[in-house]
Design a protein that fits this description.
Rossmann fold; two-stranded antiparallel sheet; globular; methyltransferase activity; methyltransferase; transferase; Class I SAM-dependent methyltransferase
Length: 252
């Protein structure tokens, strides 16, 4: 998800995977977010939640309707609705075509078929586009990108980041991942959730141990949680980050 750049597929007879040469502007729904982060939507009502690198996801529009104080940030926000719609058409066509070229990669645990997944993702983008113009004026859609976000320290109760870190490990080096995690924690008062925790080949992020150790030295606790969701191979875990207070307790 999450910028104008688009993934391309690399064929491998040994370990099929996406050769992600760039980041796709691709969106998902609140229902899908609730599964892979995972989230208790009712418990988030009245709380401030940030969706980072949100792309054309419907989360902010749908969460706002549920009483959540949702904000989304993405490098493309600030573009006209027509420009974003063009990015959706192009990236969806290319990404979905690439998905169909490698069905063996997908587990579809939450969908009956790729057709159903496509319908839900297209609906998510439609909801986003319908909400974008008014939401941008209302500061619910904010232009910005990791590793420096345009928000104050602790501006949000919960910070979410899906399908940017780890999955694009060939584009973003370790220093970027560490800086991005620090920044996500900086703008969170409570918790950060990052999904998935695997690379494009479905294997766990190769620097995960080092990342967690470095974050721990900076007072950031981490845990990898299994989720009842797996769209593509290996995408069944989420990384949770929380800052630890000086007394060793989790800071709230």
């Amino acid at each position: 998800m999450n910028s104008l750049l688009i993934p391309s597929v690399s064929v491998s007879s040994v370990s099929p995977s996406f050769e992600l040469s760039s980041v796709a502007f691709f969106g998902r729904s609140l229902a899908e977010y609730a599964k892979f982060f995972p989230l208790d939507v009712a418990a988030l009502r009245g709380r401030a939640v940030l969706d980072v690198a949100a792309g054309p996801s419907a989360f902010t529009a749908e969460a706002t309707r549920c009483g959540i104080r949702a904000t989304a940030v993405d490098p493309l926000y600030g573009c006209s609705p027509e420009t974003l719609s063009a990015h959706v058409r192009l990236d969806y066509a290319r990404t979905l075509r690439q998905m169909r070229a490698k069905p063996e990669i997908f587990r579809l645990k939450s969908f009956a078929s790729l057709d159903e997944a496509e319908r839900e993702r297209r609906t998510a983008a439609e909801i986003f586009l319908a909400d974008y113009e008014a939401g941008f004026l209302d500061n619910r859609y904010v232009g910005g990108a990791l590793p420096r976000l345009p928000f104050a320290d602790g501006a949000f109760d919960v910070v979410l980041c899906a399908h940017l870190l780890f999955i694009y490990e060939r584009l973003f080096d370790y220093a970027f991942h560490l800086a991005a995690c620090r920044e996500l924690v900086r703008v969170s008062r409570d918790e950060v959730r990052i999904h998935p925790v695997c690379g494009p080949d479905g294997k766990p992020y190769r620097e995960l141990g080092r990342l967690r150790a470095d974050l721990a030295r900076e007072g950031i606790a981490s845990s990898v949680v299994s989720v009842d969701y797996e769209f593509f191979r290996g995408s069944d875990t989420t990384l949770v980050l929380r800052r630890v207070a000086r007394n060793g307790l989790l800071a709230l």
